[in-house]
Amino acid sequence: MCSYIINTKLKEFFMFEKKISLEDKDLFEKYIYNNNHETSGLSFASLYMWKDINDIHYEIINNHLCIRALNYLTEEGKPQHFIFPPLPVGEYDSDTFNDTLKILEKNFKKDNQNLTIKLAPEKYINYFKETNNSNVLIKEDRENFDYAYLSDNLATLKGRKYQSKRNHLNYFYRNYSFEYRPLTKDLMEECIHLNDSLIENKTFENDMAEELMSHERKAIEEALYNMDTLGCRGGAILINDKVEAFTLGYKINPDMMVVHIEKANPSIRGLYQAINQQFVQNECTDVTYINREEDMGLESLRRAKLSYRPDKMIKKFDIEFK
């Protein structure tokens, strides 16, 4: 078993003063892209677009990238900080990993809070178990599981399992003259306008839902206006020279694209299926998997994501230190 003893030569307290910026992309890629991580929330694009809303800061501790964020949706109703799983540059090493956890525990206790690590991928669970710490509680976070699909399946929609999708798609192709275009700066304002119109016509269940939509709007703007620097790929469908659907993705590792944004005019039958297929066919030919993120525990979203027949679910876990 691992000793779980802190290296006394390491700095013990960190202020997490470094707020994520576009200049950090290469640094983050060293820890994330090159180590084949699949968790959608760890993509640099996702971290950047939500940086203000979730108060995302980071430190390099013991050669681990440690990202701190603010969780607004706690059971207590009080926002609390958490840590994404600490990420080493290369292979996992139990001693340095345990030292890093110990430092993080001290930092959180200094602020009168227990260390909580969220969105930890399944492969990390054994690492945490090796700490031999009986005060660690590991919980499966089903509502944040990512849905990963084979790109070939989404590009072709072949087979009986996709019959209903093809019905909607074929209706769109038969009844609409459209143009698919890769997303470029000249389309940004139209995309923002489409998203704003979707928000204006949406009925919210409560104030929190409306506030979350407002946060999402800001995050979408951050991603769109900085898509080239972020290294995102996107696409739009125009009907009568007007943007009616757009999407934006980010290649989180050499073999997986994460779709972070997908918006479409809901009054146009088959448009969601079309933007999904067109994006995969045109922008995702170099990846095997398309990660379409989580369902957030929403039944309607869960049904929609399951209907596309995911090839695998990317499990995530919460780790709480008592």
Automatic annotation (TrEMBL):
It holds the Pfam family LPG_synthase_C. PANTHER family: DUF2156 DOMAIN-CONTAINING PROTEIN (PTHR41373), PHOSPHATIDYLGLYCEROL LYSYLTRANSFERASE C-TERMINAL DOMAIN-CONTAINING PROTEIN (PTHR41373:SF1). Residues 37-317 form the Phosphatidylglycerol lysyltransferase C-terminal domain. It comes from Anaeromicrobium sediminis. It comes from the Bacteria. This is Phosphatidylglycerol lysyltransferase C-terminal domain-containing protein. Signal peptide: none annotated.
